[in-house]
Amino acid sequence: MLIGKELLEEKVKEAVKKSKERKFRESVEIAVNLRNIDMKKPENRIDQLVTLPKGLGKEKRVGVFARGETALKAKDAGADAVISPEDIDELAKNKREARKLVNRIHFFVAEAPLMPEIGKKLGPVLGPRGKMPQPIPPGSDPAPFINRLRNSVRVRTRDKLTFHAPIGTRDMDPSDVAENAIEILKAVESKYENAQQVVKSVYVKTTMGPAVRVI
After folding, report:
1. pTM higher than 0.70, yes or no?
2. Consecutive H or E run containing 108
3. Domains of the chain with bracketed CATH
């Protein structure tokens, strides 16, 4: 393990203490700086969905591309948007509305048979934002996928040596935030065999507070 839970918990407490109270519910974020990697090579980049065991404190918005029974189940599960095949056509004609939807929704799932159509018509809007849908079997219950994604974050480096990810909110138990941070670090460990040499530094901070160095 790159960093022990006790140290992470201690640093989360410090970050919250150093950040003055705001009029909104601040998130707690982790920043990881990497080294010794050529990020020009796509195979060296991280692009992984991580489900946080203790939740985000603020649920992510999830949209579902579906029809028939799956669409009904998605509505029952409280999906933040349910997009039908007809809606896909309309959004393809109205790029402004498509961008508004994609910017509002954090994650999408889609019945697998709809994926080619989505890729063809909405790929240019979804792809660059890292929001291509996660395919699910046709006719399946989308509720478990929606619930998991509500507490997930995407760890994505692109071509940079630094990435940031939310790991909770300042009013959460620091122990829970630390546990979430460990899941993010596991994504780094699973990507690189020599994670100890690859990680240059790790910081935690609240949205508007100062960064506190962990290692």
Report:
1. yes
2. strand 107-111
3. 5-57+152-213 (3.30.190.20), 62-149 (3.40.50.790)
